[in-house]
Structures are given as C-alpha cells and as structure tokens.
Amino acid sequence: MFDIYNRKIDYIRISVTDRCNLRCIYCMPEKGVQSVDNKDILSYEEIIYLCENFAKIGISKIKITGGEPLVRDNLAYLIKKIKSIQGINNVTLTTNGILLEEQIDSLVKSGLDAVNVSIDSLDEITYKSITRIGDVNKVIRGIDKTLEYKNIVVKINCVPIEGINDKQILDITKLAKNKNLSVRFIELMPIGLGKKINGMSEEKIKKIIQENYGELIVYNKPMGNGPSNYYSLENFQGKIGFISAVNHKFCNSCNRVRITANGFLKTCLQYNEGQDLKSLIRSGKSDEEINEVIKKTIYNKPKENRFLEQNCCEKLEQNIMSQIGG
Ligand code: SAM
Ligand code: SF4
Q1: What is the CB neighbour count within 10 angstroms for residue 13?
Q2: Where are the transmembrane segments (predicted)?
Q3: What angle do helix axes 136-147 and 124-131 make, rounded to 10 degrees?
Q4: From the alpha carbon of 322, which atom of ligand 2 is closest?
Q5: Which of 76, 160, 183, 204 lies in disulfide reach of 156, CB 3.0 to 4.6 Å?
Q6: Which atom from ligand 2 is nearest to the alpha carbon of 134?
Q7: How many structural domains compose the chain?
C-alpha cells in the first residue's frame, strides 16, 4: 500500500521479544531492564494472524528482530508459518549471532532467506566492552556456519562508536573481502541510550576505509529491503554499505513500519505514534476492523525523522531500542 506521502510500504520489522542475551551500551542498560510481561508479548498465533493481514495490504517482506529474536523459543516454527503466507516472499532475521551456530540449521529449514548479524568488533575485549557480556567467538562461528548455506544472504551490521570500536572498522570491513557477505555501518541514532553516546559519521568511516582499502565505488544494484547505500572495493567479495538515518536521512523513500513485541504498530522509529494492535486483537475486533486500523495507521506514517532538531516534537519515542525492535 501507499502512505499519505505516496511511499510504497511493503516491509515490516516484527519484534518477537524485548529480551536480550547481551546488553549493548547504546541499546540496553546493564541492570534494571523493565521487561514486558509475558502475557503482553504477542503469541506466535497473533503474529501470524497479523502477518496474514499485512500480506493482504501489500506487505511482502518481513524482518524478524527484537531484543534478541533467537532467545525466543522455536523461532523456526514462526518463520516457517510466516513464509507459507501467500504474498510474503521474503523473511529475514536480524540477530546478535550469539545463538546462531546452534539454530541456523533449523532456521534455514524453516525457509529463512537472509540473516543480518550485528557485530561491532572482532576483538574479544572491545566486543565485551560494548556488549558487556558477549563472546565474539560464538558470533564468528555463527557467521561462518551460516555462510555454509549458499542460498542465505548474510549481512553484517556494525555501529561505530568514537573511541570505542573505531579501531575495529578496518577488521570489520575486511570481513567482506574474505567472506561472502556484505558489511553495513549504521549511524548511531539518538534513541534511548544512544542519546548519550557519540557515533561516527559516514564520511569519517569512509575516509578510514579508503585510506586503507582503496576507493569505495558506488554500487547501484538492489541489495535487499533497506536504505543502505552500497559501495564496492577492489578485490572484495561483498559490498560495504552505510545506513545513516541522522545525517543522510532516507525518509522520502522509507518503505517500512514496525511491530513491537507487545503488539504496537509503529510507523517511524523516532516517534511514539502508531496503534496498539494487541488490544484490538484481544478485544475480539473483526478482521475487517483490524485491517482498516492497520491501513489507516500506515497511511498516516510520519513524513520524516527530525533527529537533528533539538526538542523538535512532542510525540518522541521514550522506549529503548530493544523495546522498539531496532
Ligand atoms: N538483537 C538483535 C541485533 O542486535 O541485531 C536485533 C535487535 S537490535 C535492536 C537491531 C539493530 O539495532 C542492531 O544492529 C543494533 O546494533 C542496532 N541499534 C541498537 N540501538 C541503536 C541505536 N541507538 N542507533 C543505531 N542502531 C542501533
Ligand atoms: Fe541486544 Fe541487539 Fe540491543 Fe545489543 S543491539 S542489546 S544484541 S537487542
């Protein structure tokens, strides 16, 4: 379907949990996280029901996210069910990769199309200083095992932070030289704990890469569902992408909406606007009524983020990223 600004909305990110087995400094506090009550988390049946409705209005691509999606039991079951819905042709996953090695076989069997793995450093100590508790070796083993499946598209997500993992940018980039995957550098967004941390600009990251690996050559062919700008590097198997929602915003071509783990249909990351679909489902509203609400909510998707404006607006998102489903 098209929204009020004539953008085609065909992609939804579904958060299946707000829980996580890591505590990344820009995403979750070390202690005292308020988790959503289990009874308020959408059941798999509710998620499948919503996906059937999304498919009816033209959503064809689904990303499973969280929190950490692989901490939820039997995710492969959900993926298999979503993949079988008529009209849904692409189901992908964003994970921190800690549990990937043990789950990738069943995920692939369920029909998963692609995996994005978030890894901010290849160095054990730096990785732990960001995730607080993670073992980077588990993630690397998960990536390598996933790469054995030639039909699964693998992308790496890295959020560079000044003074913390900036020295790791080259090693992360080099993954795309030696392995059949692409690397994307994500600009830190001022959401939740991200407000207190300094990310790095796309320009600065590009300079570091070009000084060491040569010219980044613009790559224009489609590479997935998202807003990343991709580049090639000579002798690299994979591409290098940049997603810079703050300083290079892509709102005029935004194709996505989100569902939080507790069933809130969220139309832009920065704002708390949207619709509580869980309450509608649980109050017994008809399929037609729910479908109308979904269409109306998506139609009114905000025009753009205003991250660069101080105190820009009233309806700002107050949740942390693991609760939103980044
Ligand atoms: N746990 C999974 C993971 O880490 O990939 C999925 C959820 S996580 C919220 C999704 C992505 O959002 C990760 O790549 C993470 O690095 C990114 N992220 C979290 N907080 C962010 C922020 N403030 N700005 C930019 N990216 C952020
Ligand atoms: Fe967990 Fe992902 Fe947030 Fe890190 S970025 S704390 S892995 S949800």
Answers
A1: 23
A2: none
A3: 100
A4: 8
A5: 183
A6: 7
A7: 1
